Each structure stands twice: as C-alpha cells, then as structure tokens.
Amino acid sequence: MADVDYGVDPELVMEFVDESEELLGDVTNLFIALETNPEDRESIDKIFRTVHTIKGNSAFFNLMKVKSMAHICENLMNLVREGSLKFNNDISDVLIRGIDYLKGMLDNVRSTKPEVDDEASYNKLLDEITSFVDAGNSQDPEAVWKVVNKDVGDFKNQFKGGDPLLMDLWNRIVKNLEILSPFSGEESAPEESTEEASSESDLNPKELIESILKIGFDDVLDENKAKQIGSALQELRNLVDESSVEKINAAINSYETTFPTDGFTSFLSDVINDHLKEVKLAGDEEKESKPEEKKESAG
Fold first, then answer.
1. Burial of 208 (0-12, 13-18, 19+ CB in 10 A)
2. Which CATH class is domain 10-137?
3. Acidic residues bias located where (predicted)?
C-alpha cells in the first residue's frame, strides 16, 4: 500500500501525532478517577480539553476522520461538563473506546497509512457516540431545569453573605428564572432569602458607592459602574448634612474633572473614598444622639 500524503510537512504531522498520543496517554488515569468520583470537574475538563485540542489540530493536518472522532467525543464530554448528562459506566465505556480508536488512527498516521482501517467499525462507533450526544441534547426540559436550578443555588451559596451587588445579581437571576420556568413547586428556582440578600435598591447612595468601590479593580473601573457612581454622587448631594456639603462637592468635582478624560481610575477611587469617609447624611447625628438621650432619661 502506497504511503498517504496528507498535504502537510511530514515532520509537522509527526509532531502532531507525538503530542496527541501524549495527551491521550494521560486520559486513561482521568477515566479511572471519574469511576471513583463521577463529578470530578478537573478530570472532566482535562478530558474535554484533550479531545478539543486534537479536534482542532487534526483539521489543520487534513486528518478529517481523526477530527470527526475527536469532535463527537468532545461533544459528549461537553454535555457531561454542562450537567446535561451524568457521567456513568455506559458513557465511560463508549468514550474509552473512542479514545482507543483515536490512538489506533494516530498509529496509522505515523505509519503514513490511511487514518481508518475499517470504515464500517469507524462509522458504527461514531453512530454509537452520537446516540449519547443526541440523548443529552434532547433531554426532558424538566431535567434541564433541575440542572439550572442547582447551578443557581450553588451561585447563591458561593456568595452568601458577601458583596451586596453580587447578591443583587443573584436575586435578579432568580426572578428571571422564575418567569422562564415552566415548572412550579419544589423544582422551581430557590426562594429569595430576605435575610441573606441585599439589593442595590436597599442601599442609600453612599452605601451604593462604597459597595461598588469595595469590589476593587485593576486599572480603570467598568464604565457603567463609574457612571452609576456619578449618578449616586449627584443624588447624595441632596441627602448630606450641611457639614458635609463641601466634602461631597469636592468628590463630585474630582469625578467630573477626571472621569471624562481618564476614566474612573484607582486614584479617583481613593480620592472619592477619602471624601466619603467624612460625609454624613442628614439625620445621622440625630440617630447617633438618640441612644445617649435614652441613657440620660433612664438616669
């Protein structure tokens, strides 16, 4: 049988084969890990990246059958990653056979043979893996909703008691999911916890600015957040105590001078933070004095 010309520098093809075989060699241990823990995210991601890489590189070398096998394995692993399919023995078995087939195809390429020895067995395995992919893509909507619902709950637990803006984001996601969900009862989105969640609407302008700046940023703050701070500063000017008017005006002046030309820089953030530390809202002093008044009346 004559050597196959793949239309690419043979040395580059051999480099691709070497790298791909090395990647696939590591996959066996990952499947063993998944048999012990089917939800091992790290192993799932590594298997996905392996077949994804081989898929992309094989197309460059005109190895279209290698590409097709890697692609269908990638699609199946992606459904596992998304939670649309649970990794189990059946999926493990068909993927391991797909990986073994890829290894055999790479051996053929190394020997400059056609990628596939037996078209019938190749197509049969492709169809078998495809059937798993089709099953994952056509899952019952309620099952998919359960996965989404779990992800939302995980998000809440991750940020519970954390930054008010992140909790506000969670609240909005929950409300939108409740609108979209065709289901009700226990499987609907988690109920909003009024004790744990705090939305932007519950914050006064000063608290809103402080909560945005608390998140921090590397160089320049996101423009939408920066404009949100600008609006809050203007609103805050009407709410401050008389003793704080000068400070809030200085903060607004710094904002209006810097933001239009340089963006909301970390320096501007420090300046505004310094001004806000000395800003008091109208009525704050009255609130602070009430406990003292109660003590005096009690005495």
1. buried
2. mainly alpha
3. 188-199
Residue with tokens 């790290």: 42
Helix axes 245-262, 266-277, angle to 10 degrees: 170
Q: What pLDDT sits at residue 200? A: 46
pLDDT at residue 242, rounded to an integer: 83
Measured at the CA of 99, the angle between CA 96 and CA 103, to 5 degrees, comes to 135
pLDDT tens by residue, 239-293: 878 888 888 888 888 888 888 877 888 788 888 888 888 888 876 655 545 555 4
In sign, the C-alpha dihedral spanning 67, 68, 70, 74 is positive
Share of the chain above pLDDT 90, in %: 27
Structure tokens at 251: 């903060």
pLDDT of residue 118 exceeding 80, the answer is yes
For the CA atoms of 88, 94, 99, 104, the dihedral, rounded to the nearest 10 degrees, stands at: 160
40: left (phi over 0), alpha (psi -120 to 50) or beta: beta
